[in-house]
Design goal:
Layout: H1 9-17, H2 23-41, E1 44-47, H3 49-64, E2 78-81, H4 108-115, E3 120-124, H5 158-165, E4 171-175, H6 182-188, E5 191-194, E6 215-219, H7 222-232, H8 250-257, E7 266-270, H9 280-295, E8 299-303, H10 311-326, H11 347-358, H12 361-374, H13 380-401, E9 406-410, H14 426-430, H15 437-442, E10 445-453, E11 460-467, H16 472-486, H17 491-499
Parallel strand pairs: 2-3, 2-4, 7-8, 7-9
Antiparallel strand pairs: 1-3, 4-6, 5-6, 5-10, 9-11, 10-11
Helix pairs in contact: 2-3, 7-8, 8-16, 10-12, 10-13
Length: 500
């Protein structure tokens, strides 16, 4: 039998549901893989072997009893970003502030995974409170890119992307506030999707920036991501921002796209996402990808979105402002870390000392920036102005989608950089999200799919596909068609690993 950790989620589901392999056997294979390689990769903060195997055995019992699987992914294990609450299982958000916290409830995404019979292998590493582009801001140490252990796996969801690339999990969940699903996918040669804002419930997702945060599926293929998307998506009355609309037929779209025909699809190349600051190998990979879309029958035109150039500064006012408000809840009074609790300090002193010790440098930087932007006399000049820019970016998208069905660009301007290379240069770090941020500001759907390896350094490059809100299915059709034409990229990592 082939190595179970190398199969796609769709392949594993088929084998489990037909009885060729058991869910418990499949889950154990991935737990063994985690034990073998995660000491080097550090994708996981907590591994829940007992919980995962219990869930897998329940699926096996249903199949043995002739009960239909709870979902198309029942029995297929998954890695969960440590920003989503898990009842009785640690949720730290990569921060000392929540070290050892055992939530009393499941996030809606977690609950839907459990109801779908998906064993949760554990919680993955991340930049603290999802603030970062490299997973170097975790209080528990950085995650490493399986392509090169000296390089970053992207952020903030580098643990989820690295778990996929290291074959520790066939599926993962990430969250995307400014690119934290798509950027890690791009630099690890995996697939990551930011659904339409409100398309997946945020209940139980520890908030960074409430108007931007969005959970989404991560996988090694477009079809796998689509199958996971349909499991976790849908309206949730527990989330006031949840969209009460049917889930787009993303699985059907992925299967249609895999047939390789994009006739009648209009693709817009965003003029503003090229030029200075973009690595030559990234741009050449993107140009090759666009040529392949044409060969598949798509009509390709250039589209200008002039206000996209202001997305980065607007984001770094909006997101820190919302973060300064959201993180005020960590007051050392109710749960989480508490220092100087010897009775000799006032509540205010305990709160201040706890935040000083519990929050890392990047979180403190954003809290201070956001608090300043919201302060009296500056609100309109900073936060208010940034929201006006957000409106202009949304209008750019609307105008573009009157001309085309989807927009494409590189996912990131560069390939994965070395650990430590940009950690002391916040601006250089923030620029990694220059292509991904506009979709968050507008609430649109967006995907990163591997577009090959850079000719310069042999490291992964991603193609970003963007679609209008509630048109997530367009991402999957175009992404699957491109993936089929391009051929596998991650297999090259397996070949590289086997040769060592």
């Amino acid at each position: 039998m082939s190595d179970l950790t190398r199969l796609t989620a769709a392949e594993l589901a088929d084998k489990i549901h037909t009885g060729e392999v058991s869910a418990a056997e499949t889950t154990q294979a991935h737990l063994d893989r985690i034990a073998a390689v995660d000491g080097d990769v550090h994708a996981f903060l907590h591994v829940d072997a007992e919980g995962a195997l219990e869930a897998a055995r329940a699926v096996d019992a249903d199949i043995a009893a002739g009960t239909a699987p709870a979902s198309p992914l029942a029995g297929v294990p998954l890695a969960l970003k440590d920003v989503l609450t898990t009842k009785g299982v640690p949720t730290t958000c990569g921060s000392k502030t929540l070290e050892g916290w055992l939530p009393p409830y499941d996030a809606t995404v977690t609950r839907r995974l459990r109801e779908a019979g998906v064993p949760i292998l554990g919680k993955t590493n991340m930049d603290e409170f999802a603030m970062g582009s490299s997973t170097e801001n975790s209080a528990y140490g950085p995650t490493r890119n399986p392509w090169d252990l000296g390089r970053i796996p992207g952020g903030s969801g580098g643990g989820s992307s690295a778990s996929l690339a290291a074959y520790e999990a066939p599926l993962a969940i990430g969250t995307d506030t400014g690119g934290s699903i798509r950027q890690p996918a791009a630099v690890t040669a995996t697939v990551g999707v930011k659904p339409t804002y409100g398309g997946v419930s945020r209940y139980g997702l520890v908030a960074f920036s409430s108007s931007l945060d969005q959970a989404g599926p991560c996988g090694r293929t477009v079809l796998d991501a689509a199958l996971l998307h349909e499991v976790i998506a849908g309206h949730d009355p527990m989330d006031a921002t949840s969209v009460d609309a049917p889930v787009p037929a993303v699985v059907d779209a992925a299967r249609q796209g895999a047939r390789g025909d994009l006739s009648g699809v209009k693709v817009g190349v965003v003029r503003e996402f090229s030029g200075e600051g973009y690595q030559g190998g990234v741009l050449r990979s993107f140009e090759t990808a666009v040529a392949q879309l044409k060969e598949l029958g798509a009509e390709v035109v250039e589209v200008s979105c002039p206000n996209f150039t202001y997305a980065l500064p607007a984001y770094y006012l909006i997101a820190p402002s919302e973060c300064s408000s959201n993180l005020a809840r960590f007051d050392a009074m109710r749960y989480g870390l508490r220092v100087a609790d010897d009775g000799s300090h006032s509540a205010e002193e305990v709160m201040s000392l706890t935040r000083e010790e519990g929050f890392g440098a990047e979180v403190k930087r954003r809290v201070m920036l956001g608090t300043y932007a919201l302060s009296s006399g500056y609100y309109d000049a900073y936060y208010g102005s940034a929201q006006k820019v957000r409106t202009l970016i949304t209008r750019d998208f609307a105008a573009a989608f009157e001309q085309v069905d989807v927009l494409v660009s590189p996912t990131t301007p560069v390939t994965p950089f070395k650990l430590g290379e940009k950690v002391d240069d916040p601006l250089a770090m923030y620029l990694n999200d220059i292509c991904s941020i506009p979709a968050n500001l507008a609430g649109n759907a967006a995907m990163s799919v591997p577009s090959g390896l850079s000719e310069e350094d042999g490291l992964p490059v991603g193609l970003q596909i963007m679609a209008p809100a509630l048109a997530d299915d367009r991402l999957y059709r175009v992404g699957a068609a491109y993936e089929a034409a391009r051929g596998p990229v991650l297999d090259k990592l397996g070949e590289l690993e086997a040769s060592k």
